Amino acid sequence: MLAVHQRLAELYTLSLKRPLAAAERDEQQHCLHVNTVYCWEMARLNNEAMLAAHTKDSQWQQEISAQMLEVRVTGRAAKRQG
């Protein structure tokens, strides 16, 4: 879990108790944007992993696994060479 996911949960919990302040609403929108990018990146990598498995390309699978770990830890994968 990324720190942005924890903050998003905190902001959601706060919103159940009281209206969020303007700065908190802005922060919530930022967290939602980061989460969206994260989800799309993981979906792309999952699709690539499935293709690599179907084509039995073990090197590509290893590269994708490394990228997935990087996304889970940092929120984004490094630019690919190619």
UniProtKB/TrEMBL annotation:
Known InterPro entries for this protein? DUF7667
Pfam families referenced in this protein's UniProt entry, alphabetically = DUF7667
What name does UniProt use for this protein?
Uncharacterized protein
Q: Whose protein is this, by species?
A: Paenibacillus phytohabitans
